[in-house]
Structure formats: structure tokens, C-alpha cells
Amino acid sequence: MEITEVELSTNEVIEGIKQADKQFQTGQEKIFSVLETVKTEDNDKWKAEDKELSTGEKNGVKPQNSTIKNKLAEQSGELESSSSSKRMKYPETLESFMANLVESKRPVKAILSDDYYRPMSFTKVYVGQVKNVKDLSKIILLLNQKLPLKDLSHLKRACRKEIILFPINHLNCQTHASIQYYIEEHMNELRDSFEYFKIIDVPAVAPKIRKQYVECGRSWSCNFHPNKYLEKLYADELFSPTEIVQHRLFMGMAFEIAIYYMKKDKPTLEPYDILNANVNATVVVDPLDQSVVAVAFDNRENHPVQHSCMLAIDNVAKTQTGGAWDTCDIDSVNLRGMCSMDLLLHLKHKYPNIRIGAKKYISKSNLDEKKLSASDSPYLCTGFYIYMIREPCVMCAMGTYINGILCHIWNWKEDIPCRTQDFTLKVPRFEVEVSVVNGAVVYRRREATSIFRIDIRFTHR
Amino acid sequence: MVDIMKKALELASEALAAQEVPVGCVFTFGSDIIAQSRNTVNATRNPTRHAEINCIDTVLEYCKLNSIDFKAYFKNVTVYVTVEPCIMCAAALNNLNVKEVIYGCANDRFGGKTVLDVNDFYEHNYMLTGNLLADDAMALLKQFYKGTNPNAPDSKVKKQSLT
């Protein structure tokens, strides 16, 4: 993504809006609308380029016209902006590619559900204008009792002198006389309370972030409890610059693993070869002590389940005296996640300052015996970060999900991605919250209704 | 069909006895059973070791030993599993182009159809039929979830107070 380009198009849009549209009231509103427009513009750009760049489907995935594909392409259009046009122009050498990847100062982009980027949806309700403001609280009380808002409970019942009566589908016949008749029939006390009735648009769902809250506020006031974590995610401010440097370092390691294996077949490996190959490489990191627990490189050609991610998960299991696939020649339990001795030595040589190895695994019965707490031993991949050179497929994404992986960080977007939030939203069991306290990453699982697991990708160089 | 599902249910009971989530799975090729397995998540400390994945491993091993092209082979494989394949397994089975999947009870937590329709992500979809001996499969699950997971860390309430 070229920042200059984005700025340019933003300016253009601002100019356009200034000339064409005078109805914006506040500066804030203007900014949001500009953002929306830029996003739409980029969407179109992305879609057009996507068609040009489409190199056929891998893994038997559905072609372009699939609905999900389109939906996701739209999402990624927002996220990726104009980066796709730069896809083809990789630096010529592996060295410069790796240097760019690791040293770049560009932010990492948190990938949130579609809901956060879409404009709010609205629904129509009848409101009544109250004659006497003094009666307001009494009327609200009575209405809440007789006609609770149910699906619209995120809305405040009254706004200025208007009170929400019911959604328009509550009555079959939509005339003002019929509303008056309905009120007389069901709540005779309120017979004379209203000046007039009208239909207005109100937000159909509760706002999740401040941007949406502001957007809602223009039509009707909502109940809103800001969630600092979500706000940070939305603004891409979750990680400090130092943490991003760390993320880039581990991402570099994932590429190093791919290079290590791919160079065996092709000594003159170029960055473009990695991009074009249908392979992935994975690094699993324990963020608490910043150590590499497991790594893996794809074996999907020989074994269609052994995607690097699934191998890495199994390698993590090996460091906890488990594991199902016999893929490792290292004896030491805490280093068994590293695939092979050769690779381990190679990575130690390349990254002398990165800690490698898993924390000692202690079984549940031993924990109880020694009166240790559960946090003294790793449990599956709970709280770990996973770095992949490209977005995981559906199988891998779900695999990391049931493993308690806290954070996906990946570099290249897949043609058919499975955004983890697609099902994180639908599988509300292992929600995890991450927070940074005094420099240490603290995580905890929680049962929440909103998305907390993060899926993060690097923006392009 | 019912016989094979009964076989899968036996495997699920075996899993229950081993304190694993009681899911059993049988792969057939024509009228032959070519693979049978159950969950081994706790034994391997790898939560992705579902019955289906174990069966896939068995078949791949078999193909490798007999120099059979697994890609062509899987196209004729029918999968019997006591619980609807989860999103991960559904994706794996889609990826392998299996012919058909027949399951017992639905999986409303992680189901690869019920929760997220994985077929939307793949071009070649298998036939999916459910509700074969569903009550038996469900009874096993209910029995399992009455107990506690011996390997799970203590409840999050304790954990939170630590952090």
C-alpha cells in the first residue's frame, strides 16, 4: 500500500464532497463519510484488479462468482486498499524482500468482522410526539411495561420529545388513525398524550464501536458501552511499535523456514516463487516469554491434511509429550516443536537472539501434586500467537481456533480466505481477550458475545 | 448403512471409556471398511485429532504403502461419523473430495454445516446426510459432558484472579 496514493484519493474525495454535498454538519461526520467513500472506491479498484490478477483456483476452491468470495473480496478491499496493484512488483532478491518485510514500519492491520466496516443498518419505527414533557417518564414506564422494545433494546425509548411506540410491522394498517385507535384500545391512559405520530429510521442493531455510535446518534440515541479493546483493534492501535517489530521478526522467521525448505528444490529461489507456490510456513510463539514453541513447513502435496499449520499444532503437542505425526528427529521434549535438528540449527544461526523452545509441560496430576497453578504449564496452544506467511484455510483456521491460539498473524491474503471471525462470531465459546499490562501480554479466555480473537495481517511493504 | 453407523458408535463408546469426546468414524470404499477410528485428542494433546482426521491418516498411509493415488481414491470414499463433522474436518473432507458424508447427530457448536457452511468455500462438495442413529450418538455425548475434562486447566475464575 502506498500511503501517498491513499492520501491523494482522500483529498480528491474531500474536494468532491465539498463541492457536491453541503449537508454534513460536523467535522467528525465529514471524516467518517470520507472514509466510507474512500473504502468504496478502493473496493471497486480491488475488485477490478482481482479479476486481472486472478490466477485460477487453488485447492478446488469456488470461482469468483461465489457469494462468499465476493463478500470477502469487498472486505479485503477495505483492508488492503490499493496494495494489490503492487503485488507483482516484488523486490528482485530474497535479501531485499526479507529486509523489507522485517524492517518495514508499516502497521499491522487487525481484521474485524464485516459488521465493523459496514454502514449501520436501520429499521423503521413509529414514534409519537409527546404533548407535555412532564409526562415523559410516566409514558416511558407504561410503554416499557406494555410494549417492550425487545429486539430494539439498544435504543433509548425517548429522544427529545419523541417516544418510540413500536416497529412498523407491529400494525398491519399503517395510518395515523390506526395508531391512535391501537393506543386507545390497549393503553387508554395515553389516549391524549401524543401530539402526532410519524415513522422514523432507527439503528437496527446496537453500535459496537464509537464510530458506529456516532453514526447512530444522528438518527436516535442508543445505549452504548465503549469497549476499549475493540476501539484499539479498530484503530490498529492494539500493538505498540516495539511489539510490531517483534511480530515482523517472527514473520521473517516464517519466511526463513519457507526459504530453507524451498531452496532445497530450487537454489535460485526468488520471492515471487514463494508467492506463487501453494505452500505455507508457520511459527508458533508463546507471547509470555517471546519464545518459539514450534515451527512447520507445508507437506500438503504428500498429505493433504499436513498443512503447515496443522503440523505446527501437532509439533506443539509434541512439546507437551503428545503428538500424532512422526515428523521430528529431535529428542529433547521442549525442542520437539522445531521439526528437524538441521532446521533448528539453521534458525539458531539466523536468529541468535530469539529464544527457541517450549516451556516445560507438567501434567495435570503433577500440577495438583506440587500445588502449582494451571498457568505453570502450557495447555495446548492456549494464548499462543501463530505466524503464517499466508492466510490459513478453513481447516487450519478452525484447527487453531479449537487449540486456543490467541492471535493469527499472516502476510499474504488468500484468494479464498476463511476469515476466522466468520465463525468466531458463530462459535461463542473460546473467546479470548488480550491486554498489555506493564509490557507483558496478558490473556484470558472469556465467554463473551463479541469477537475478541484477533486475526492480523501485515499491510504490504 | 445402519450397521456401519453402529460400528462407528462402538468406536465412540470406546472413546468415552478412554475419557475422550465420544465420536467415532468409519470410512468405506464400496462395501469395504477401509478405516475406523475415534477421537484421540487427550491422548495426543492435540485437539485436531478428531476421528475423521485419524481415519484420513489411515487411508493415506494405506495409499502410500500400496502406491495408490490418494486423490483418485478418496473420490470413492464414504464417511460415517457419529457426530456432524466440525468445521475443520468438513474442510479437510471437502479438500479430499470424498464422495459422501453420513453423520449421526448435528453439532451445533462447531458443525461444518450447522454453524458455518463449509461447502460455500469449496467447489467440489460431498453429499451430506444426517440423523442416522442420532439419539445414540447424542446420548454418548451427553454422558461425556456430564463428566469433566481431566486435562483442562482449572476454571477461568481462578485464572483471572491470578492475572
UniProtKB/TrEMBL annotation, chain A:
It comes from the Eukaryota. Residues 48-85 are annotated as: Disordered. One of its GO terms (molecular function) is catalytic activity. This is Inactive tRNA-specific adenosine deaminase-like protein 3. It comes from Arctia plantaginis. The lineage of its organism: Eukaryota, Metazoa, Ecdysozoa, Arthropoda, Hexapoda.
UniProtKB/TrEMBL annotation, chain B:
Residues 1-114 form the CMP/dCMP-type deaminase domain. CDD domains: nucleoside_deaminase. It comes from the Eukaryota. One of its GO terms (molecular function) is tRNA-specific adenosine-34 deaminase activity. InterPro entries: CMP_dCMP_dom, Cytidine_deaminase-like. GO terms for biological process: tRNA wobble adenosine to inosine editing. This is CMP/dCMP-type deaminase domain-containing protein. It comes from Arctia plantaginis (Wood tiger moth). The lineage of its organism: Eukaryota, Metazoa, Ecdysozoa, Arthropoda, Hexapoda.
